Structures are given as structure tokens and as C-alpha cells.
What does this fold into?
Amino acid sequence: MKKTKLKIAITGAALVVAAATGTATIANGSPAEPEQPRIEQTDQKATTAIRTDGANVFPHSLDFDAPSETFFAGSLSHGQVYAFGPDGKVRTHIDDPQLVSAQAVHADRERGRILVSNVDYGTADRSNKDAPFRIAGVGSYDLNSGKQNWCVDLTAVVADDKQHLISDVTVAPDGTAYAVDELSPTVFRIDPDGRASVFLQSDLLQGTLDVPDFLNDVGMAAVNWVPGDQLIIAMADGALVRVPVQHPEQAQPVKLSAPLASPAAGMRLLEDGAIAAVSSGLLSGKPAQIQRVEPRDGWQEATVKVTGTVEDPVTSDVTAGPAGTTYALSGGLAALLAGKPNDGFTLTPVPTN
It folds into this structure.
């Protein structure tokens, strides 16, 4: 594996893309709801974009709690999680000193909690700017109060003194969480009480995507638990990997009709068993692509088609919304890496079929 580059200020070719489009932050996903995975209607209803007043939040991912009609978005700049409704008025929901940057966010109503991945790009208020990517964890917080249940340090689980980035988290019906590491080929298993272990390490999950002057060997970008008790993992290079939960050693690539556009970013599971995915235009400067992935033969194969685009190339996640909608998140992350402020972030309604 190549040594990860630590230049937080994007330079060279990446600077051209970032200045016009967004940040070199790549991964996330909106995982499936436990008990039954996240189930929302796929018929997109006419709606408008949600523009928030969350200045300098810089979210990379978010999730939606349907009963309360509340979105929860993590912050890469402040290590907090924010709540807001369709009116876009943002309020702090989780403020845990242990969180450096909050990347993946999963609202788990079945267990009354929110799962949050703890990362450090070296750009947050609480960052160790001289040693980024040394924080990797997952925290559990009360869905209503935001109070911490537990926060587990995954670097202590692997104890390899390498760089790590927990890009996404999903939950199985039994409450077990699975977290994927963007900078190592490692999937972690975390039980409902916060006890963590290595679930899978595989060359299939080794990163191959390079972001010029920022990160090398970027790997797992998003993960969903799907019916059939499997994990579907999106690689940043556009591949998908299928992992049977009961037999992770049988992990195999999903045979796709076409790769997801690269770099792949967030995913969400749809009612009909397909996955909606967003792929960033980070390296091309072109609009982000919304893609529909329809499985066959228990996710051994899948058909990929583009269902829409978002003008902001560095759109980084997709989530459910009210009344069966699907929204894509544009977090204003170019300004974060450039050291500039912003005045909020945007959710754009997108088609999924």
C-alpha cells in the first residue's frame, strides 16, 4: 500500500477541481434501517431543494428519521451532529468532546440511537493538524437527547499504528453495526453495547483510487446491510463487493453492468431492494451522478443506470426525505479545505428510478 499523502491544502490538479467544485473528501453512505432495512417509497414527489442556515457545518453525510421528520448531519469542522427539518433551520444535537470530525451518521430508531463515525482529516477545531487520520471510531448517541451511550476507539482494535478513516456505518436487524475503513481493507463489527472487533480484512477491499496531492489508495466509501444478511460495500473506484454476514470469508465482487462513476460516495437502500448511489465529480469537475443499482441473483450481479445529476460535483451522500423523497447532500466542502467559511449547505431532491 502506498503511503498516504498528508497535504491537507489541495494543490496541483486537485486544486483546479476543488476550486471549481468541492473538496477531496470522498466517502460516506446512508445505511439501511434495522429490523427491516431503510424502506422508503421510490416514487419521487415534486419538491424543492432544502437550503440550511448551518454556516460552517460542512457535513459529509446525513440520515433521516421519518417519524420525527428530522435530518441529522455530521460536521467535519466542529465534531458535532446537527438536526434540522425541511425548513432548513439547524440546531446542535450532539456535541461530544470525543468527536473530532463526525462523518458517517446513521439514525437507528429501532434502538433509539444515532451512530456516528469519528474521523480526523486535520481540518477540524479539535484536530491534531500535525497527525491527521489517526482518529477512527464509532459513537452511539441517544436519538432524542444526543447523550453519549458509548464511543469506541477502533484504532485500538487493530493496533497497527497506521492511518484510518471510518467512512460509513450500517446496522443489521440484530443491532450489530458494521463500519468500513477508507484507508485500510478492514471492516469492523460493533455489538449493540459498543464492543468492537475486526469482522473482515480482505485484499478485495484494498483501495486503488488516488486523489492527487491529498490521499492515495482510497478504498471503501459506503456500506449498506441488505436483505439476505449481506453487506454491500461501494469502493471509491466504482466497484461493489458483496459480503455474506455469516460467512465473510466468501466476500466476492458484484458483477456490474457498468461500474459506478468514480469516486463513489454515499448509498441508500430503496423499498424495492435496489440501491441509490451518488458518485462525486471530484476528479472530473462534472456534475455528481445519481445512480440506481438493481441486484440480481442475491447481489451476485447488478445493473447500474444513471437516474439524475446534481450540479455540485462534490455532492457526497444520498438519504431518504419526507413523503418518499430522496435527497442528495452538497456540504460546501471545498471551502473547508480551502480554509474559507460558508453560510450553509444544500439538499437537492433527486430521482431514483
